[in-house]
Amino acid sequence: MKKTVTTFAKAKQSGEKLTMLTAYDYSTAKLMDESGVDAILVGDSLGNVILGYDSTVAVTMEDMIHHGAAVARGAKEAMVVVDMPFMSYQTSVYDALVNAGRLMKEANAGAVKLEGGESVCEVIKAITQAGIPVMAHLGLTPQSVNAFGGFKVQCKDELSAKKLVKDALAVQEAGAFAVVLECVPAKLAEYVTSILDIPTIGIGAGAGCDGQVLVYQDMLGMFSDYTPKFVKKYADAGTFMRQAFTDYINETKSGAFPSEEHCFKIDEDVMEKVME
Ligand code: KIV
Ligand code: NA
């Protein structure tokens, strides 16, 4: 059965942990879906891991629609959450509505995600009221990297920790069905989780959250540009892939590949006529 906002609400009540992974293409989404993940996030992290930018600010609506639609075709049961890219929701409530609508209509998103607290509550409210579920995103919000002055843990001092609590309550009040907490001290994330009625999904926010999310290239060991402290490597797929690529190159050079089992046959008499 297709997972929805109801799945998230029920998990918050029952205490069952929610799982989310990022994906950007059909075949990866299909593998994750078959594994039983609750939600697949088409993150704007695609700017980093797919497109090779050094931040997410250059990611466009067209990028998100292109990859979102591919993931949605592979996700039979998992809820597909698509990130709203930088400047697709900050300019006006109208722009935000139009762009959230495009992600649902053109990419088949089950929900959209956007970064920010009180400052984006008007936007969250409008999108939610239009019938598009919104996942909020607080703590380290990578689209604001230029304002933060780099990627680092957030909300460690009293002022910013209190701001996180206020923002979390505000996005819930505005209608968000869940909130991602990124790079937030574990104790603070646990406290926020305890006071919210909507589930928190942590990344670098400890085990006290209602669920977890990881970028798949990070958790598979496929992305080596940098590895944040919160990443657990569940596989070393990077080494595995590099080995397979090398084997293929060596076997092709030596003539070991392709062997007879990988070749198509033609009748001898046909061949004889061809060579006459
Ligand atoms: O873009 C992304 O992958 C994200 C997750 C890190 C939450 O926003
Ligand atoms: Na993102």
Concise account of the structure shown:
This protein has an eight-stranded parallel beta barrel, surrounded by seven helices. It has helices at residues 5-14, 26-35, 46-49, 61-74, 93-107, 121-129, 145-148, 158-174, 186-195, 216-219, 237-254, 268-275; strands spanning 18-22, 39-42, 79-83, 111-115, 134-139, 178-182, 200-203, 211-214.
Name of the CATH superfamily of the largest domain: Phosphoenolpyruvate-binding domains
CATH third-tier fold name of the largest domain: TIM Barrel
Query: What's the average pLDDT?
Result: 97
Give me the strand/helix succession.
HEHEHHEHEHEHHEHEEHHH
Sum up the overall morphology in one term: elongated
* Major β-sheet annotation: 8 strands, parallel, barrel
Give the CATH architecture of the largest domain.
Alpha-Beta Barrel
Main sheet: which strands, in order across? Answer: 1-2-3-4-5-6-7-8
CATH class of the largest domain: Alpha Beta
Low-confidence region ranges? none
Radius of gyration: 22 Å
* Total number of domains: 2
Strand-residue fraction? Answer: 5-15%
Helix vs. strand class: alpha/beta
**Strand runs, count:** 8
Question: How many DSSP helices?
Answer: 12
* Helix coverage percent: 40-55%
- Give the cofactors and ligands: 3-methyl-2-oxobutanoic acid, sodium ion
Distance between the termini: 61 Å
What can you see in these coordinates?
There is one protein chain. The protein is of the alpha/beta class. It has 2 domains: 231 residues, Phosphoenolpyruvate-binding domains (TIM Barrel); 36 residues, no CATH class. 45% of the residues lie in helices and 14% in strands. The chain contains 12 helices and 8 strands. An 8-stranded parallel β-barrel has the order 1-2-3-4-5-6-7-8, surrounded by 7 helices. Helix 4 packs parallel to helix 5, helix 5 packs across helix 6 and helix 6 packs parallel to helix 8. The protein binds 3-methyl-2-oxobutanoic acid and sodium ion. Sodium ion binds next to loops. 3-methyl-2-oxobutanoic acid binds next to strand 6. It holds the Pfam family Pantoate_transf. It comes from Ruminococcus intestinalis. Belongs to the PanB family.
